[in-house]
Amino acid sequence: MPFFFPAIIFYPLMFETLTQKLLASLRSIGSRTRLTEEIVDEVCRQLKTNLLDADVNVKVAKDFIDAVRRKSLGVEVQKSLSPEQHFIRIVYEELCSIMGGKATPLNFRVRPPAVIMVVGLQGSGKTTSVVKLARHIREVHKKSLLVASVDVYRPAAIEQLSTQIKNLGYDHFDSSIMEARPRAVLAKEEAIKQNAEVLLVDTAGRLHIDREMMAEIQDLASVFSPVEILLAVDAMTGQDAR
User: Fold this and answer.
1) Burial 9-45 (b: 16+ CB within 10 A, else e)
2) How many whole angstroms separate alpha carbon 99 and alpha carbon 121?
3) What's the pLDDT tens digit per position in 24-45?
4) Are residues 146 and 200 in the same domain?
5) Which residues constitute the domain of residue 169?
């Protein structure tokens, strides 16, 4: 389930190029007095090209363009809006729709600890996101938490997270065990022992084509029984997000 928490994770670089191209396409409507089928088809063609150039999934791009075209031609333009403004509003609404429609709050309505796992590719910003999310949970939701890492592959990954979490004054699960599953079991036991309301887990980066690593994350999920699994992404994820 997509999750967005305000003032913590931003994606300006991820969407900057795509945004510029989309705006350029929309400006081609200019000062037209009405949206004709010819104009809509031309702008939709440009939009689809821009989306595919940005590595958007072909089906997602097609469904998006089909919805924009259908709504543009099937709805009368409001008198208070220009054709350009009307079209931009439709594009905006459809973009919001394919990104989840609305922000989804974290689910804490479970028997503690509520386990939240952060997953993603190598170098996608998981550890940094975990630290920011930990602060969000403590300062906004006022929840007690334990932060743990089961990334036993990246050099100093556990130490990095431990240092940053302790600098914030939060609890970090420490153990000399360097095997993912045993660490997971002990981390959950420690969270229960501490009566932590939330157990926030950082995981190792992995590709979906790595069967061994994908089997590991499934095994870890069976240990933790997480209420949320959050995918940390950057602009290079592309269609691996599937």
Assistant:
1) beeeeeeeebeebbeebbeebeeeeebeeebbeebbe
2) 20
3) 666 666 555 566 788 788 888 8
4) yes
5) 114-241
